[in-house]
Amino acid sequence: MTNNRRAVFLDHPSLDLGDLDLSGLRDCFSDLQLYSDTTPLNVIARLQGVQVVISNKIALNTETLAACPDLKLILVSATGTNNVDLDAARAHGITVSNCQGYGTPSVAQHTIMLLLNLVTRVKDYQRDVSAGKWQEAKQFCLLDYPIVELEGKTLGLLGHGELGSAVARLAEAFGMRVILGAIPGRPARADRVPLDELLAQVDALTLHCPLNEHTRDFIGARELALLKPGAFVVNTARGGLINEQALADALRSGHLGGAATDVLSVEPPVNGNPLLADDIPRLIVTPHNAWGSREARQRIVGQLTENALGFFRGAPLRVVS
């Protein structure tokens, strides 16, 4: 059944740290070659005679697809497909399938974790403990930084799909009131509060929407200034939704109570980033790992397997092109 079904995974370590079960995925193919790293210089060579390619972030552009006549299926081991030229794939009769909804529990808990760290000032207290300040204290505790309870506070959600809904449920479990904001480029809805109105009334803001021409930098200096003094901002969606320089400035000014982001506009930030400066107070940056629980990554393997089997059976799944 798997005769002549050759496949390659161009950036295997972007998914598997050696802790995943790949047996089901391997069974889909007569041969599955795992590559630890692929560059633009060797991607075409690695796809010769290959029917299926698995890629997370390796670019599959017009030139590459034109040079790989045996390629029939692209399996993206993520949701975003910006690394694939979808028009070129269609032109060459190549099916493209992605993975969807695999990281909801992981990203939702990461979002709330970041918010909890901000409101409890964990980073500041841990720094002081490491510096010996607790050991020198004249009383049993340190209370040098204000601690904020989530109960009774208002959370504004920008994006109420699967991820946003999961975050809303967790926030409500902490006793928060959740309101939903309108996102630029989408039709108005009665259950979505206009952005400016939302910003003025929330104690915390979390982002769960896609990055596109309507949402790039849509939270800038003006929008941050509309937030209440002491408000918190968390972005586990996409870098570029929030103007990074404006966020750095708002934190330095003391207007915000804190901010956290799991994403930057360019990843990895090889040329630096305004949010990586060492003088920004009350900021937490995590390295785009909110999605990366073992359980979430194993779900991706499962979806890759389903997508491959569906294609071979003539009923492809999660098709984006």
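[next item in queue]
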Amino acid sequence: HTCLAHAKAVIEFRTLELDGKIGNILNLSPVYPRSERAEDLKAAKDAHAIHVKSFLDPTVHGTYPEHLVTLLREHDLLPETETEDLEIIAQGAVDFLGVNYYQPIRVKEVPEAECHHPAQSLEDFSRHYDWPEKRMNPYRGWEIYPKGIYDIAMMIKEDYNNIPWFISENGMGVAEEERFIDASGEVQDDYRIEFIHDHLEYALQAIEEGANCFGYHLWTFIDCWSWLNGFKNRYGYYRLDLETHERTPKKSAHWIKDVIASGELPELNHERK
């Protein structure tokens, strides 16, 4: 129903012959298997179909991936459809994509003895794999993996007609940032600078290799309120004082301003991961 509603909006936009292009924003996370064993590779293929291709394929290609349809049919999970549904979805392909990327999906096989047939949850298709080499944001509990941006870019280039796209969300939430306020009152968020730098570096590498990425938006410009944790984690280039409502640029704000003004990404003295 989400895909149908989306397609009808796209169709209406084009019917109105408006001056512009239309796209949508998806959460895309590259899926990595624990190993090259057949069971882990199958878990990754299933997870990729469910978490990535289920919305990406109808959005860009106007069709559902065959593997996903087969997988859902095997588990008696296909939704009821009308005969014209696929015709509508086929007309809803977008002109460009927005991509939200925060962390990858790492999976491993599901032990056969623990599988339900038909499936009762996503854990019947794959299980989370805790990669021992991961780099974590401990405040959000998310893995930091900048190369995921590059892998997404190559996937879009190779499998989705190199459709134009931009990074619509990417960022790092940190709790108690007042710990990093210096004598001048500025948050010294070098961790955020490193995070943005590493993701931009991989985005630029992808662009150099032909990816059609045209922009990068940090989540977010200013510290914002979250449905899940209020103002616990701060994400912005600018700090928001909850008492005075004053907005103060952090170190990262000055850094990104210089990057934009120069058009160049400076080197950081650390190893890229």
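[queue empty]
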